[in-house]
Amino acid sequence: MSAAMDTESTYSGYSHYSGHSKKAHRQGRDRHKSPRSKDGSRSEKSVTIQTPPAEPLLGNDASRAEEGQDDNWGETTTAITGTSEHSISQEDIARISKDLEDSVGLDCKRYLGLTVAAVLGLLVFLTPIAFILLPQILWRDDLEPCGTVCEGLFISVAFKLLILLIGTWALFFRQPKADLPRVFVFRALLLVLIFLFVFSYWLFYGVRILDSKDTNYQGIVQYAVSLVDALLFIHYLAIVLLELRQLQPTFTVKVVRSTDGESRYYSLGHLSIQRAALVVLENYYRDFTVYNPALLTASKSRAAKHMAGLKVYNVDGPGNNASGQSRAMIAAAARRRDSSHNELYYEEADHERRVRKRRARLVVAVEEAFTHIKRLQAEEQQKAPGEMMDPREAAQAIFPSMARALQKYLRTTRQQQYHSMESILQHLSFCITNNMTPKAFLERYLNPGPTLQYDRDRWFSKQWTLVSEEAVTSGLQDGVVFVLKCLDFSLVVNVKKIPFIKLSEEFIDPKSHKFVLRLQSETSV
């Protein structure tokens, strides 16, 4: 209990990293409003990819850094907690209502598609059984006796239906990963093909068997077996179209994050634009480092300081317009560009020096804390089994010794909004439980990891918008460019086709490597 109180007293200000004023709230809201395009001539199609609901938005993080912070904000900022005041405008209300309508439409579309597929699948599996049972129910006395071959066909139908059921479950009954803006073309074609196929069999069955009351029961069972065989072939076609066709790499896509320019390359097969966008998003959460808007404020603050140091005097009187002042400020800033690179160099060098210094302090503090843990473990082994300390209590006991160093390092590297006190304690207790080293514990904080490493409520975006000049159901082609937009940034995807490679073979004669060494018979003494 005392260890928990020490933890809270040492780390009381850590859970609140930076306080937001009402001005910063309005600036953040205005900055995240989607800009209206002024160019009406460009024909772009904007559709939405929505992941499963009930997840937090990426931009609703209350610890977002302000744009006007200086480099020493980690030491000079005072966190003040209290009642939060929020304002909302009519545009925000309209945007929220539009998002709700879009989400309702996507949910209806998803459930409608699942309902249609489930009804059609149930019809497919019940049709062969109905073909066999209807003659037994309607004109059983007039049927010819079913011989050995007919009874063997019953076993064949049963096992084929079981195989078809397992294959359908493995291929189609999966948890959806995302809501795509348009239907999957191949899946829709397969559903239409299955419907037409089953309808044709029912039409033939009704005309030639039900109306005439065919007495050849073995032929009726053979007709049901042919239906099951055809359904198995359609299932094989579905595997080829839905799974195997996209496995061979055909295109290389370059994904660039618009804010910091981080990029990755991926190889894709024959996919539609919307499915390629889904693959890009899945790889983005795994490969890209977490988006940190606080790292982008350095250049903005530097530009603000340059413009703040300029003074403009209006010598022509108040009649002059503001465009002349703007040109004068731009010209003065251009004359100062020779000295700006020196300021940038020294700012980056000073930042790197402070990061290395605080990193060294953090490493030393964590190593001392883990040494203390080993000493505690040695002491606990001598006690009774009922007095052993669990990993959570051990983490709370050693955390105050490293809390200040970790807090300063995370503030200097602008990572504090992604690591809460509870998450650090959980990670520390996890490392203690698995007997991990201090280096393993610090890996999460010294090296920014992929997006999936952090809590979902700090990075997960509920809705992505796909912007493409081509139809999103069309396949990938060389030179296609589409954009994936979320609240804070966008991913620009450029598609290039893998070139055709021609290899030629060159034969080397094995005898060409042989040589003869001739020695002189007479040698000098």
Automatic annotation (TrEMBL):
<dbReference type="GO" id="GO:0005886">
    <property type="term" value="C:plasma membrane"/>
</dbReference>
<feature type="region of interest" description="Disordered">
    <location>
        <begin position="1"/>
        <end position="86"/>
    </location>
</feature>
<protein>
    <submittedName>
        <fullName>VANG1 protein</fullName>
    </submittedName>
</protein>
<keyword id="KW-0812">Transmembrane</keyword>
<feature type="compositionally biased region" description="Basic residues">
    <location>
        <begin position="19"/>
        <end position="35"/>
    </location>
</feature>
<feature type="compositionally biased region" description="Basic and acidic residues">
    <location>
        <begin position="36"/>
        <end position="45"/>
    </location>
</feature>
<feature type="transmembrane region" description="Helical">
    <location>
        <begin position="153"/>
        <end position="172"/>
    </location>
</feature>
<feature type="transmembrane region" description="Helical">
    <location>
        <begin position="184"/>
        <end position="204"/>
    </location>
</feature>
<dbReference type="Pfam" id="PF06638">
    <property type="entry name" value="Strabismus"/>
</dbReference>
<keyword id="KW-1003">Cell membrane</keyword>
<dbReference type="InterPro" id="IPR009539">
    <property type="entry name" value="VANGL"/>
</dbReference>
<keyword id="KW-0472">Membrane</keyword>
<comment type="similarity">
    <text>Belongs to the Vang family.</text>
</comment>
<keyword id="KW-1133">Transmembrane helix</keyword>
<feature type="transmembrane region" description="Helical">
    <location>
        <begin position="111"/>
        <end position="133"/>
    </location>
</feature>
<feature type="compositionally biased region" description="Polar residues">
    <location>
        <begin position="74"/>
        <end position="86"/>
    </location>
</feature>
<feature type="transmembrane region" description="Helical">
    <location>
        <begin position="224"/>
        <end position="244"/>
    </location>
</feature>
